[in-house]
Amino acid sequence: MTTEQINSGLIQIMRERIPSGMNLARVLMDLLCIGEEAVYRRLRGEVPFTLAEAAIVSGKLGISLDKLVGADRQGNAVFDLNLIKYDDPADTYHALIDNYIELFESIADLAAVETGTAANKVPQVFTMKYETLSKFRFLKWMYQNEEKETARSLDDITLPEKLVRKQQQYIGYVQRFGFTYYVWDAMLFAALIADIKYFVSIGIVNNHNVARLREELMALLEEMYHIASVGKFPSGNEIQIYISNINFEATYSYIEANNYILGLLRVFSLNPMTSRDEEVFLNLKRWIKSLKKFSILISQSGEMQRIQFFNKQREAVATL
How far, in Å, CA of 288 to CA of 273, rounded? Predict the structure, then answer.
Protein backbone atom coordinates (compact mmCIF):
# COMPACT_ATOMS: atom_id res chain seq x y z
CA MET A 1 0.00 0.00 0.00
CA THR A 2 1.47 3.37 -1.04
CA THR A 3 1.71 6.52 1.05
CA GLU A 4 -0.77 8.16 -1.30
CA GLN A 5 -3.30 5.36 -0.76
CA ILE A 6 -2.90 5.50 3.02
CA ASN A 7 -3.28 9.29 3.03
CA SER A 8 -6.34 9.12 0.78
CA GLY A 9 -7.89 6.43 2.97
CA LEU A 10 -7.26 8.47 6.11
CA ILE A 11 -8.95 11.53 4.60
CA GLN A 12 -11.96 9.47 3.54
CA ILE A 13 -12.38 7.98 7.02
CA MET A 14 -11.99 11.40 8.64
CA ARG A 15 -14.80 12.78 6.46
CA GLU A 16 -17.00 9.86 7.52
CA ARG A 17 -16.19 10.23 11.21
CA ILE A 18 -16.80 13.92 11.84
CA PRO A 19 -20.38 14.86 12.77
CA SER A 20 -22.61 16.10 9.96
CA GLY A 21 -22.38 19.84 9.44
CA MET A 22 -18.82 20.19 10.77
CA ASN A 23 -16.01 21.43 8.53
CA LEU A 24 -13.16 18.90 8.35
CA ALA A 25 -10.54 21.57 7.65
CA ARG A 26 -11.58 23.53 10.74
CA VAL A 27 -11.51 20.34 12.86
CA LEU A 28 -7.99 19.54 11.66
CA MET A 29 -6.78 23.09 12.26
CA ASP A 30 -7.91 22.82 15.88
CA LEU A 31 -6.55 19.29 16.38
CA LEU A 32 -3.18 19.73 14.73
CA CYS A 33 -2.59 23.43 15.48
CA ILE A 34 -1.61 24.18 11.89
CA GLY A 35 -2.77 26.85 9.49
CA GLU A 36 -5.63 26.72 7.01
CA GLU A 37 -3.43 26.46 3.91
CA ALA A 38 -1.35 23.66 5.48
CA VAL A 39 -4.55 21.72 6.19
CA TYR A 40 -5.87 22.14 2.66
CA ARG A 41 -2.55 21.00 1.17
CA ARG A 42 -3.01 17.76 3.14
CA LEU A 43 -6.65 17.39 2.16
CA ARG A 44 -5.76 17.89 -1.52
CA GLY A 45 -3.11 15.18 -1.21
CA GLU A 46 -0.25 17.53 -2.01
CA VAL A 47 1.39 16.87 1.38
CA PRO A 48 0.81 13.62 3.30
CA PHE A 49 -0.14 13.63 6.96
CA THR A 50 2.85 12.85 9.17
CA LEU A 51 2.74 9.84 11.46
CA ALA A 52 2.42 12.14 14.49
CA GLU A 53 -0.50 14.00 12.85
CA ALA A 54 -2.21 10.74 11.89
CA ALA A 55 -1.80 9.49 15.47
CA ILE A 56 -3.43 12.63 16.89
CA VAL A 57 -6.33 12.42 14.46
CA SER A 58 -6.82 8.70 15.04
CA GLY A 59 -6.94 9.21 18.81
CA LYS A 60 -9.49 12.02 18.62
CA LEU A 61 -11.72 10.55 15.91
CA GLY A 62 -11.40 6.88 16.85
CA ILE A 63 -9.70 5.79 13.63
CA SER A 64 -7.72 2.55 13.69
CA LEU A 65 -4.43 3.10 11.85
CA ASP A 66 -3.85 -0.67 11.92
CA LYS A 67 -7.03 -1.24 9.94
CA LEU A 68 -6.19 1.63 7.61
CA VAL A 69 -2.95 -0.04 6.51
CA GLY A 70 -4.40 -3.55 6.68
CA ALA A 71 -2.17 -4.67 9.55
CA ASP A 72 -4.86 -5.27 12.16
CA ARG A 73 -5.50 -8.65 13.66
CA GLN A 74 -9.02 -9.94 13.38
CA GLY A 75 -11.06 -9.17 16.49
CA ASN A 76 -8.84 -6.34 17.78
CA ALA A 77 -10.24 -2.89 18.52
CA VAL A 78 -9.03 0.36 20.10
CA PHE A 79 -10.60 1.41 23.43
CA ASP A 80 -10.19 4.69 25.26
CA LEU A 81 -10.02 4.30 29.06
CA ASN A 82 -10.91 8.01 29.51
CA LEU A 83 -8.53 8.35 32.45
CA ILE A 84 -8.23 11.96 33.64
CA LYS A 85 -6.34 13.04 36.74
CA TYR A 86 -6.16 16.39 38.54
CA ASP A 87 -4.87 17.18 42.02
CA ASP A 88 -8.39 18.19 43.08
CA PRO A 89 -10.86 15.26 42.77
CA ALA A 90 -13.69 17.70 42.04
CA ASP A 91 -11.75 19.04 39.04
CA THR A 92 -11.25 15.48 37.74
CA TYR A 93 -14.96 14.70 38.20
CA HIS A 94 -15.86 17.98 36.49
CA ALA A 95 -13.56 17.17 33.55
CA LEU A 96 -15.12 13.73 33.08
CA ILE A 97 -18.59 15.23 32.77
CA ASP A 98 -17.24 18.02 30.57
CA ASN A 99 -15.88 15.42 28.13
CA TYR A 100 -19.41 14.16 27.55
CA ILE A 101 -20.72 17.69 27.08
CA GLU A 102 -18.01 18.45 24.51
CA LEU A 103 -19.09 15.30 22.68
CA PHE A 104 -22.75 16.35 22.71
CA GLU A 105 -21.84 19.85 21.54
CA SER A 106 -19.91 18.37 18.61
CA ILE A 107 -23.09 16.69 17.35
CA ALA A 108 -24.81 19.36 15.31
CA ASP A 109 -28.31 17.84 15.39
CA LEU A 110 -29.08 16.30 18.77
CA ALA A 111 -32.57 15.41 17.54
CA ALA A 112 -30.89 12.91 15.19
CA VAL A 113 -29.24 11.04 18.07
CA GLU A 114 -30.27 7.51 19.00
CA THR A 115 -28.90 6.10 22.21
CA GLY A 116 -29.49 2.74 23.85
CA THR A 117 -28.40 1.54 27.28
CA ALA A 118 -28.58 -1.73 29.14
CA ALA A 119 -28.21 -0.65 32.77
CA ASN A 120 -27.70 -2.80 35.84
CA LYS A 121 -27.37 0.30 38.05
CA VAL A 122 -29.39 3.51 38.30
CA PRO A 123 -28.21 5.70 35.39
CA GLN A 124 -26.36 8.74 36.66
CA VAL A 125 -28.40 11.10 34.52
CA PHE A 126 -31.38 10.39 36.81
CA THR A 127 -29.50 10.97 40.09
CA MET A 128 -27.56 14.10 39.13
CA LYS A 129 -30.40 16.51 39.96
CA TYR A 130 -30.59 15.29 43.58
CA GLU A 131 -28.11 16.96 45.93
CA THR A 132 -27.39 14.18 48.43
CA LEU A 133 -27.41 11.43 45.80
CA SER A 134 -24.95 13.46 43.73
CA LYS A 135 -22.74 13.95 46.77
CA PHE A 136 -22.88 10.24 47.55
CA ARG A 137 -21.99 9.27 43.97
CA PHE A 138 -19.07 11.71 44.09
CA LEU A 139 -17.96 10.33 47.47
CA LYS A 140 -18.02 6.77 46.20
CA TRP A 141 -16.16 7.70 43.00
CA MET A 142 -13.53 9.58 45.01
CA TYR A 143 -13.22 6.73 47.52
CA GLN A 144 -12.53 4.31 44.65
CA ASN A 145 -10.27 6.49 42.52
CA GLU A 146 -8.16 8.53 44.93
CA GLU A 147 -4.80 6.99 45.82
CA LYS A 148 -4.67 8.63 49.23
CA GLU A 149 -7.04 7.80 52.07
CA THR A 150 -10.37 9.58 51.50
CA ALA A 151 -12.56 8.08 54.22
CA ARG A 152 -14.31 11.27 55.17
CA SER A 153 -17.93 11.85 56.15
CA LEU A 154 -20.58 12.51 53.52
CA ASP A 155 -21.30 15.69 55.50
CA ASP A 156 -17.82 16.92 54.56
CA ILE A 157 -18.54 16.68 50.84
CA THR A 158 -19.41 19.91 49.07
CA LEU A 159 -20.01 19.93 45.34
CA PRO A 160 -18.55 23.06 43.72
CA GLU A 161 -21.15 25.24 42.06
CA LYS A 162 -19.43 24.83 38.69
CA LEU A 163 -19.82 21.04 39.01
CA VAL A 164 -23.51 21.36 39.88
CA ARG A 165 -24.03 23.57 36.81
CA LYS A 166 -22.11 21.09 34.65
CA GLN A 167 -24.34 18.24 35.85
CA GLN A 168 -27.47 20.20 34.98
CA GLN A 169 -26.02 20.94 31.55
CA TYR A 170 -25.32 17.21 31.07
CA ILE A 171 -28.93 16.34 31.96
CA GLY A 172 -30.23 18.94 29.52
CA TYR A 173 -28.20 17.53 26.64
CA VAL A 174 -29.18 13.91 27.30
CA GLN A 175 -32.86 14.81 27.34
CA ARG A 176 -32.54 16.49 23.92
CA PHE A 177 -31.62 13.26 22.14
CA GLY A 178 -34.17 12.31 19.50
CA PHE A 179 -34.71 8.76 20.74
CA THR A 180 -33.54 7.04 23.91
CA TYR A 181 -34.23 3.59 25.20
CA TYR A 182 -33.16 1.73 28.32
CA VAL A 183 -33.17 -1.92 29.26
CA TRP A 184 -33.11 -1.97 33.05
CA ASP A 185 -32.05 -4.85 35.25
CA ALA A 186 -34.92 -5.92 37.52
CA MET A 187 -32.63 -5.23 40.52
CA LEU A 188 -31.77 -1.73 39.30
CA PHE A 189 -31.64 -0.06 42.73
CA ALA A 190 -30.07 -2.98 44.60
CA ALA A 191 -26.45 -2.03 43.91
CA LEU A 192 -26.93 1.61 44.94
CA ILE A 193 -28.68 0.58 48.16
CA ALA A 194 -25.93 -1.93 48.93
CA ASP A 195 -23.33 0.82 48.41
CA ILE A 196 -25.13 3.14 50.83
CA LYS A 197 -25.37 0.40 53.45
CA TYR A 198 -21.66 -0.33 53.13
CA PHE A 199 -20.69 3.30 53.68
CA VAL A 200 -23.02 3.37 56.69
CA SER A 201 -21.22 0.31 58.09
CA ILE A 202 -17.81 2.02 57.92
CA GLY A 203 -19.10 5.24 59.47
CA ILE A 204 -18.87 7.53 56.46
CA VAL A 205 -22.65 7.93 56.03
CA ASN A 206 -24.66 8.73 59.19
CA ASN A 207 -28.34 8.27 60.01
CA HIS A 208 -29.20 11.81 58.95
CA ASN A 209 -27.58 11.18 55.57
CA VAL A 210 -29.49 7.90 55.21
CA ALA A 211 -32.82 9.63 55.87
CA ARG A 212 -32.02 12.24 53.24
CA LEU A 213 -30.87 9.64 50.71
CA ARG A 214 -34.02 7.59 51.29
CA GLU A 215 -36.18 10.69 50.76
CA GLU A 216 -34.40 11.57 47.51
CA LEU A 217 -34.54 7.98 46.24
CA MET A 218 -38.29 7.89 46.79
CA ALA A 219 -38.63 11.19 44.91
CA LEU A 220 -36.42 9.80 42.14
CA LEU A 221 -38.64 6.73 41.84
CA GLU A 222 -41.71 8.93 41.47
CA GLU A 223 -39.95 10.91 38.74
CA MET A 224 -38.85 7.75 36.92
CA TYR A 225 -42.34 6.25 37.24
CA HIS A 226 -43.85 9.34 35.60
CA ILE A 227 -41.30 9.28 32.77
CA ALA A 228 -42.03 5.58 32.20
CA SER A 229 -45.79 6.21 32.22
CA VAL A 230 -45.75 8.94 29.58
CA GLY A 231 -42.76 7.61 27.60
CA LYS A 232 -41.17 11.05 27.41
CA PHE A 233 -38.48 13.10 29.12
CA PRO A 234 -39.54 16.49 30.55
CA SER A 235 -38.07 17.88 27.32
CA GLY A 236 -40.79 16.03 25.39
CA ASN A 237 -38.37 13.68 23.62
CA GLU A 238 -39.24 10.00 23.41
CA ILE A 239 -37.88 7.41 25.81
CA GLN A 240 -38.64 3.70 25.93
CA ILE A 241 -37.99 1.68 29.07
CA TYR A 242 -37.78 -2.11 29.22
CA ILE A 243 -37.39 -4.31 32.29
CA SER A 244 -35.14 -7.31 31.69
CA ASN A 245 -36.06 -10.76 32.93
CA ILE A 246 -32.38 -11.74 32.95
CA ASN A 247 -29.48 -10.14 34.79
CA PHE A 248 -26.39 -8.70 33.10
CA GLU A 249 -22.94 -7.95 34.46
CA ALA A 250 -22.34 -4.29 33.63
CA THR A 251 -23.84 -1.23 31.96
CA TYR A 252 -23.49 -0.99 28.17
CA SER A 253 -24.42 1.92 25.91
CA TYR A 254 -24.12 3.21 22.39
CA ILE A 255 -24.61 6.61 20.78
CA GLU A 256 -25.39 7.00 17.09
CA ALA A 257 -25.90 10.22 15.16
CA ASN A 258 -25.46 10.72 11.43
CA ASN A 259 -21.83 9.67 10.83
CA TYR A 260 -20.96 9.51 14.53
CA ILE A 261 -20.86 6.22 16.46
CA LEU A 262 -19.65 5.42 19.97
CA GLY A 263 -19.80 2.30 22.12
CA LEU A 264 -19.46 2.54 25.91
CA LEU A 265 -18.71 -0.07 28.58
CA ARG A 266 -19.28 1.38 32.03
CA VAL A 267 -16.68 -0.44 34.07
CA PHE A 268 -15.04 2.58 35.75
CA SER A 269 -18.11 4.42 37.07
CA LEU A 270 -18.39 7.81 35.34
CA ASN A 271 -15.38 7.26 33.06
CA PRO A 272 -16.26 4.21 30.95
CA MET A 273 -14.18 2.51 28.31
CA THR A 274 -15.27 3.85 24.93
CA SER A 275 -14.64 2.81 21.37
CA ARG A 276 -15.46 4.24 17.97
CA ASP A 277 -14.55 0.97 16.29
CA GLU A 278 -17.43 0.02 14.01
CA GLU A 279 -17.40 -3.66 14.95
CA VAL A 280 -17.46 -2.86 18.67
CA PHE A 281 -20.29 -0.40 18.12
CA LEU A 282 -22.38 -2.80 16.03
CA ASN A 283 -21.88 -5.67 18.46
CA LEU A 284 -22.85 -3.51 21.44
CA LYS A 285 -25.91 -2.20 19.64
CA ARG A 286 -26.91 -5.70 18.57
CA TRP A 287 -26.44 -7.09 22.08
CA ILE A 288 -28.43 -4.30 23.77
CA LYS A 289 -31.26 -4.66 21.28
CA SER A 290 -31.26 -8.45 21.77
CA LEU A 291 -32.06 -7.92 25.46
CA LYS A 292 -35.47 -6.63 24.42
CA LYS A 293 -36.40 -10.25 23.65
CA PHE A 294 -36.04 -11.03 27.35
CA SER A 295 -37.69 -7.82 28.53
CA ILE A 296 -41.04 -6.14 29.05
CA LEU A 297 -41.79 -2.65 27.74
CA ILE A 298 -43.16 -0.54 30.63
CA SER A 299 -43.22 2.90 28.99
CA GLN A 300 -46.73 3.76 27.80
CA SER A 301 -47.62 0.07 28.19
CA GLY A 302 -47.19 -2.85 30.56
CA GLU A 303 -48.94 -0.96 33.36
CA MET A 304 -49.13 -3.93 35.71
CA GLN A 305 -45.45 -4.79 35.22
CA ARG A 306 -44.52 -1.11 35.61
CA ILE A 307 -46.35 -0.89 38.94
CA GLN A 308 -44.79 -4.14 40.16
CA PHE A 309 -41.27 -3.06 39.19
CA PHE A 310 -41.45 0.30 40.92
CA ASN A 311 -43.11 -1.17 44.01
CA LYS A 312 -40.17 -3.59 44.34
CA GLN A 313 -37.70 -0.71 44.04
CA ARG A 314 -39.61 1.24 46.72
CA GLU A 315 -39.52 -1.77 49.02
CA ALA A 316 -35.77 -2.03 48.52
CA VAL A 317 -35.27 1.68 49.28
CA ALA A 318 -37.40 1.34 52.42
CA THR A 319 -34.81 -1.10 53.85
CA LEU A 320 -32.37 1.79 54.30
Answer: 16
